[in-house]
Design goal:
The structure is a homotetramer of 323-residue chains. With 323 residues, chain A is α/β, with parallel strands linked by helices. Chain A is built from 10 helices and 13 strands. In chain A, helix 5 links the parallel strand 5 and strand 6.
């Protein structure tokens, strides 16, 4: 018996990635693919890489005959959608927006869906707030330290994201003529993902109380985030490596690389890779993910797998693009 | 006494290039920089690379106290602008749109501004219709043959343009996430520039009467056009080389390369380079230009130089970006 | 009982793609991963995207306890390898080089492994000569016409390839500083793949006897080939579409798009997509593949699937990178 | 009377940029263009963008009949060259390597050639050690603070460089297939340019004694460096802006932008642009340069202009590539 899945907002980037993943997921049947603007159109007319893979069409209708609902709409819209469209008891919800990530606002039915932080709670969750892309990448770099209470000084973070992180809306900073061969800083010290990162660090270390200095950058590539972060630390290189290896030992998607890493190792996969180096008294952590997969739709599927008792990697053994 | 220049449509790509060129042109004084949407704003707030180079501001006012007017507005808009804003007798006009390129529609006051075709007529012209970018690149590859009556069979042309050729308007095909690492064909056999190319070939060879099969492509780079074209020919490789070298002998911006060429040889310059090879009975011609310079604003300045009796290269000895 | 596979030349690009595919292929067990230069090293130290996916190591040893051998070495080296390392009777060989593609040189044991041309012969073949990347892309565009005897005039082909087509060797034309934002023509009218294309067209149409004019180009992207080709034709647009749809009706990896296409629709998949347009008396065919998958390792797995009686798509339902 | 210039190592990237600049410099005559590996060859056969601009050839001969010698060879080679080829008294030398940047090793004849730091000393210098590219970009961001003694806490710097920063040598990290769409960290906390930066900060502020934490990154573009750096500071945003505006008031190539900046504002120019923002108690400084121009050959020409009493901008009013 397959899991019946519905997708809201399926004409966007994260919706498209949901489709690319679920179409090949052996335990999922796509019940409906909702889009307000594309009702009736072939999915492969919008996500044209799916030509030949599916004859599904977008629909404007909603159905309650599903087991799980993925919300792939914008921030604010997810909350509004659920208010206007009450979902039948028993249907699990996985929301990719930021609307339910902060516990205070979301209430107790929602679990923050970062398996490397909350795997057991996710298994039994009703609703999942899927983490942000920067937030995932940075947390993968910091959780092992926080779990041991080892973040005692300000953390310095610089992270560069691909253009898909900004969605498919047209804007001057997503214009090819501008972005190609370009680089820029935005929302310095003020990115909205800092809140969910802080919440997670406090969850692991109630004493956590140092600043996270975060400089986000727009890169001239389409997929992926590379975060370089460092903090003063007493750990030796060997001790630091062990902290990370121990923390991620049971996690199938997050790996510790002994060698230096580069962004394309994870592009088009749902993996995260971290690498740690010690320089004087500073511990450097480099963390990479694909913003649309481990940073969005891949993690959503990982959460679904956990919620439905499947192998965490089901449907997510993806071929890296590598080049 | 400097040439007083006005620019209409100066917030766009070709308008910006006009500014980048004229600011450093030793014989030109910029009289006004017109923009409907940016009146009062600093030029360097829109063309941000000009920060520190100029304190000029856009204006919504027009002045007739100029020697030359550059029209950098869209197709159709140039004609309309001139109808609504009659220009004082004696002011020279250089229009970068396609509105006056075809002799039938433009009337006798307009000269098609391709110096490699019409240099002497340009010197005495009142008004110049500046050629299209694809049209310039392809004509540089074909004019020497046409001048000798050597195009007797269908010509096969494939040319790939950078994203700036599509202007700064936002569109799905100029979205970075789509265009990066992508390639596509558009307007196959039907590009509007075929008309002006045909007109020029007939000008040189009244017998010219074969098809030009033209496949335009959108490349994933910002600047430049590379056109590869071939035609059946009796010429030997040496004869063909001589035809091209002779034709371009007196032209300071168009060069014949004995070695194979690549697009970046001309990027950020106002040069054209052609390379010819003979393969069996086919004569292959590769032609490269920067679409915004030799294909637009650089050629406009070249035309201005000719019209005002200046050295054709004045203000156009540009450093190639090379990489 | 899984198929035991060995890979020769597994440190290169096509060898890496073989590994990325076979690691997730449900019916394959990797017996050994041969590399002369990397014996003993972790695969994930060379193909670093495989970190966390496999603990396999390269070996310098060869084993005969396999069912299929993939040769991922350079042109010339494959033939030499087989001469120096006789393979036990019964082991199937799939060679990705060009050494056995031409029937005259290869002898009768070898079948040219293009499923869209030779599917039934592949099922029973001992040895497979896997087609070239340009050759695959262009043949997908021409086979349906040839099968009906409809190629009666010269065919004009321009195709642009990504950098991975040139392998991982370091060279001036694969230097990032040169290739980024660049475009160039190479081996015009003279690419070695013309031979295998011609052989296939004659196989389908013994009367085939017109020139294929082929201009290959180096693009500034990593993966994929887009070929634009045209030929004079009496077919209407509708008739042409039907010819292509009929020909590919039973083929799971090659699709006909009614809409215009762009390269990224197939990147990181093993699909081919073709699109046909009629312009005057010219029939335009655009064809796209990923050069490393449908143009190399993906097609090798497709051939293996056919040879071992598996579903042709087994292990090849790949998530497109899309962006 | 023009300045006679000789160039050593003129087949490399910085040598090529020297040529591109000096060919159009109104006060310079190129005396010789030295290359060990290309003697006798046309310059335009190596720097192919110069086709049509010069008929000069590389030479293996050295001449002492020059006014200034530019050394564009690798680190270590410059020192060795001067030991083996004593230069006649009175010839000024501008060395682009790092061999003479540190005062202790270089001796008193050498001046560190950063005009924003040492303009007056450069005017009368015999020999100039041209600064490194990262070093220039970062110093432009820090000099104004150091000059006021305002750097009292650790500085956190992340800077991303284009591929030309690594020169034209072939290497895995400059392979297009690897670098395109990629990002990586290298030499974290340990880049050799930290020494010259520290030396300059001490020159301005003898009390300077805090760590510079520097994470260099390899970007997937060809030209340019963007550095984002921050430090705890008591300055208000307005005060900080004034500190920078005052410091750079008389410097024609370094500008302070009130708006946020992006890398392409300076690509293919010899400008630097800095932008400052205050966030809580942290002062963020973003600094951009073209690594081959303000970071190498452009700055070398700027130094030459100062040494010979020319307008500092002579030959350096470059058209930005902008896109």
């Amino acid at each position: 018996m397959k899991i019946k899945a519905g997708i809201i907002g399926s004409a966007g980037y994260t919706g498209g990635e949901m489709l690319r993943l679920l179409i090949n997921h052996p335990d999922v049947e796509i019940a409906f693919v909702h889009s307000n603007s594309n009702g009736g159109n072939l999915i492969s007319d919008v996500h044209t890489d799916l030509l030949g893979d599916t004859d599904l069409r977008f629909t404007e209708e909603l159905s309650q005959d599903i087991d799980v609902l993925f919300l792939c709409v914008g921030h604010g819209t997810a909350k509004k959608f659920l208010e206007e469209n009450p979902v039948k008891e028993g249907i699990k919800i996985i929301d990719l927006s930021q609307d339910f990530r902060l516990a205070g606002a979301a209430g107790t039915d929602w679990v923050y869906g970062l398996p490397e932080l909350n795997r057991e709670r996710i298994r039994t969750a009703k609703f999942i707030a899927n983490p942000g892309c920067f937030a995932t990448c940075i947390q993968l770099g910091l959780l092992p330290l926080a779990a041991k209470g080892l973040i005692k000084n300000a953390v310095h973070i610089n992270a560069t994201t691909g253009s898909t992180g900004a969605g498919q809306g047209l804007s001057p900073t997503s214009h090819f003529s501008w972005r190609n061969n370009n680089l820029s800083v935005y929302k310095a010290f003020d990115h909205q993902h800092l809140n969910e990162i802080g919440q997670s660090l406090v969850q692991l270390d109630a004493q956590f109380d140092v600043p996270l200095h975060f400089i986000p950058q727009r890169g001239d590539f389409t997929r992926g985030i590379l975060a370089a972060m460092y903090v003063e630390s007493d750990l030796t290189a060997e001790e630091a490596l062990k902290v990370y290896e121990d923390y991620y030992a049971g996690h199938p998607f997050t790996h510790v690389s002994k060698n230096n890493i580069d962004l394309k190792q994870v592009v088009n996969t749902s993996k995260g890779i971290v690498h740690v180096e010690k320089h004087g008294d500073q511990l450097l952590v480099i963390s990479i993910i694909d913003n649309l997969l481990k940073g969005a739709s891949g993690q959503a599927v990982q959460n679904m797998n956990l919620m439905f008792g499947l192998d965490e990697r089901q449907g997510l053994r993806l071929k890296a693009s590598a080049f």
